Amino acid sequence: MNQANGAENMESVCIYQDPMMYGAHGITSAVEHQRKALEIQGIDVKGKPVEPYGAIHVNWPGPASYLRLKQAQNRGKIGLVFVHAGKSIDRGFTVSQYLVKPLVNKLWLSSIYDTADRVIAPTEYAKEKMKGFDVDPDKIRVVSNGVDFSKIQYSQQERRRYRERYDMNRPTVITIGQVKPRKDVSTFVEVARKLPQYQFFWFGQTLDWSSLFGDRTDEVIYNSPDNVRFTGYVDDIDAALSSGDLFFFPSKEENEAIVLLEAAAHGLPIVTRNLPAYKDLLIDGQSCLKGETTEEFVELVQRAMEENEVRGKLTENAKESAEEYSLRNIGKKYLNIYEEFQD
Description:
- The protein is α/β, with parallel strands linked by helices and 343 residues long.
- The chain folds into two domains: 4-146 and 326-339, 3-Layer(aba) Sandwich (Rossmann fold); 156-323, 3-Layer(aba) Sandwich (Rossmann fold).
- 41% of the residues lie in helices and 14% in strands.
- It has 14 helices and twelve strands.
- The strands form two sheets. It has a six-stranded parallel β-sheet, sandwiched between helices.
- Helix 2 (26-40) crosses helix 14, helix 8 packs across helix 12 and helix 12 crosses helix 13.
- The radius of gyration is 21 Å and the shape is elongated.
- Residues 86-100 and 210-214 have low confidence and may be disordered.
């Protein structure tokens, strides 16, 4: 493939906005971070493939994105496809697994990854999963989705505002993300049930139709104890992070979980599940506490909430860990990838 035209026009990049990509979820956040990371490096970013541009970023595994990718490559542009999900994608997007299965089966995803000039995985764990799609390992690069430090700053004023808004009157454990089975709503609620001395808040959109497809999320929410609240979508993540005293993230499967790095950058103690994706992000006992079972999570939440020495160490180390993932650093890594195609 002749990519000279792409290499010569790297002053502008298309981060394609697929018409099927809607809602507030990890992919939309990743797209926004890609845009900001490139703009910090002085690159003009477009949402549509309008000349001149040198590369196209594809994030959504839909037919429109695939078509735009092929068209761009035929015009000599560099095509980057970002890994946001693998075989465990069921129920991972905004719609039900029954609606997305035809779109994201192995054959379809494999064809998109195979077409890409570079496949961008957010972690080594995500890169390893690409073996299941027969992706050429030589064209995979590991680049985090990054942390937007311009939006992550503790605010005492915002803390007061949100705590008053949601009647937070006790030490508060929070999480942020869409309310869906993969995020393990059941464990979040059960831990809260065993720790009535704390409030537990889940900031994030609830999928109203989830009960139509047989999962128990709605039932779990309905039967949750009085110290649990699901707020629904909130537009001010920084204020939500400021309002909490600890970040608890029991999700069962993630490729990276940028929200953990955002919580780390905010200085919140973190309790999370021991997932392979977090191996290089946060160190157990240093920058977070990792568990597996409800009983372990109960113990870890209590430690991080009540032992000042533990809280102090987790906060300091987590902030240092997050600094590596600034958007300025992420943008430099994109430029390095583009340079691979220059003569």
